[in-house]
Amino acid sequence: MAMADLTQETELLLERSRAITLHGRDKRGRAVVRIVGKYFPARALGGRADEALRGYVRGRVLPEIGEREFVVVYVHSLVDRGENFPGVGAIRAAYESLPAAAKERLRAVYFVHPGLQARLFFATFGRFLFSSGLYEKLRYMSRLEYLWEHVSKGEFEVPECARRHDDELERRPLMDYGIEATDRRCMFDAASMDTSTSLHSLRCIS
């Protein structure tokens, strides 16, 4: 398959998945880029996740944003590293490929339902893996209600996986601290980071 056809195929796969879409404005009038981790077709993309993310963001997302300031809402609810998590390496590559002006216009990244493993990982390795410009814009949102302090609720389409997980957290609040888990699988650990950095695994707490 020709390179152009392969690129078109991966972009079409991402478009159909609706993993990355523009959704309304935040309360300061800035564009909102919604990224739903559970929708990301990581398994289907295989080793092309890095290239697919970079191409889709630069070719589809940035032109739609234009010259506006924007924020990213990343919904991590019910992500499974084997099915739909692209790896931190792919996320870092996509961010670093942005033009300097676009990085400046990115004002915040709201990380919805991060879980204990994600918090531990980024607290330990975040500053080493990401530039300070991105790391300092990261905001954890353990509940959807905290997101509504920043994003206009009526303009943001909440994926069903986020609603379900939010309801589960309300019923079982100890999940926030890793004391209680929905199942025995590790939804987010260092083994899924997919980076070249040598890291010790963060084991599931269950």
From TrEMBL:
PANTHER family in the record: OS01G0948300 PROTEIN
Species of provenance: Zizania palustris
CDD domains, per the entry: SEC14
One Pfam family this sequence matches: CRAL_TRIO_2
CRAL-TRIO domain sequence ranges: 6-167
SMART domains: SEC14
Lineage, highest ranks first: Eukaryota, Viridiplantae, Streptophyta, Embryophyta, Tracheophyta
Protein name in the entry: CRAL-TRIO domain-containing protein
